[in-house]
């Protein structure tokens, strides 16, 4: 009888242990994704400051999550708003050495105030994390 009670306790404990491991894995992935976004944004700011001599940072924004609203995935988004006397074509040429431009994941644009906005959107290391659902 004691053996049956022990087996029953083990059978009941296994699902709880597995659920706990799954939750810890998701929390670990969430932390890694946020750290990756912070590192990406920091690197982007450093690259801009290195390549643009008269840069004036206006806003530095980063976001981790499903930034497109489609699908179940996690992105690392960095948005940097800055001003400079350089022309957009010169900026793109300097930054092309470091980043590959496209229509959605990485581009440089100018807003209505005449400031530049650099957008960098990459896939997170734990792209299937609960944060993207």
Explain the overall architecture:
This protein is of the alpha+beta class and 133 residues long. Helix content is 44%, strand content 24%. The chain has 2 helices and 4 strands; from the N terminus they run αββαββ. The chain is rod-shaped, with a radius of gyration of 22 Å.
Which SSEs are present, and which pair or pack?
Elements: H1 2-51, E1 56-65, E2 75-83, H2 88-96, E3 106-110, E4 116-123
Antiparallel strand pairs: 1-2, 2-4, 3-4
By secondary-structure content and strand pairing, the structural class works out as alpha+beta
In terms of DSSP E residues, the strand content is 15-25%
Could you estimate the helical fraction of the residues in percent? 40-55%
Low-confidence sequence ranges: none
SSE string, helices as H and strands as E:
HEEHEE
Distance between the termini: 46 Å
Mean pLDDT: 91
Largest sheet: 4 strands, antiparallel
Offer a concise description of the structure:
The protein has helices at 2-51, 88-96; strands at 56-65, 75-83, 106-110, 116-123.
Supply the key terms.
133 residues, 2 helices, 44% helix
């Amino acid at each position: 009888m004691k053996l049956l009670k022990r087996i029953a306790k083990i059978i009941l404990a296994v699902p709880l242990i597995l659920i706990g491991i799954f939750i810890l894995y998701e929390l670990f992935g969430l932390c890694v994704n946020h750290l990756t976004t912070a590192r990406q944004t920091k690197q982007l700011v450093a690259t801009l400051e290195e390549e643009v001599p008269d840069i004036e940072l206006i806003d530095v924004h980063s976001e981790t999550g499903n930034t497109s609203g489609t699908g179940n995935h996690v992105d690392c988004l960095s948005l940097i708003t800055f001003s400079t006397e350089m022309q957009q074509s010169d900026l793109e040429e300097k930054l092309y050495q470091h980043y590959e431009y496209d229509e959605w994941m990485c581009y440089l644009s100018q807003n209505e105030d005449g400031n530049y906005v650099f957008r960098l959107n990459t896939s997170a290391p734990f792209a299937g994390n609960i944060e993207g659902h």
